[in-house]
Amino acid sequence: MAVIVRNRFYPQLALVLALLVFVGFSRTYYLRFLSDLPPLVTLVRLHGLVFTGWLLLFVAQTRLIAADRVDLHMKLGIVGLLLAAGVVALGVLTAFHTAAVPRVRASGLTPAQFTIVPFVSISLFAIFVGLGVALRRRASLHKRFMVLAMIAVLGPAVARLFALLDLAAFAPIGNIASGAFFAGWCLVHDWRRNRVVHPVFLIGGLVVIASWPLRMVIARSEWYQPIGDWVARVGAGI
Can you give the pTM of this predicted structure? Predict the structure, then answer.
């Protein structure tokens, strides 16, 4: 009987992404009880909890495929869809909430201007997950879109990691670099394994990378300012 040898790249990548998120959020979320930071509001705690659930499931799903447990992977897909919906909904609500909290950003953006940053990340996450679900029967596309969904929402973890290293001023560059690194890692893997650059990683990676400077342009534009101000006003009531 033939033995199916699964690709170990995706489980390894998932673990690296999960480790990055954990380290980035270690002080402000996962190990917050060890610091003197004030307690988080319920909305932010819930957002972190649901995203952690998504992250753990993402790691588990890659390992199930590596173990050839496609049946269980597909069953857990329903849970993943629910968690992804929760990540999107709570991410939007959290973006509204934080828009009303005075804070100095490393990018120099006001809280109202900064709202475009999480909105774009959440939108890219939703689009990539949606494409992954729609193409779930085409494994080569499904797994790549799910990876891109994770790469698209690394921004907050990367920014906090730079803050931990006392390099907060370089966080905007770090976000671009992290997207380029992980998308590039995926492209190199595809090239080494198949001698071809997969268009999903190429186009999707470029979209994620290009979105960062585009967010800065939109945030400082005149037309977005009223939108950001409205988000801040609504967020004050959340």
Answer: 0.94
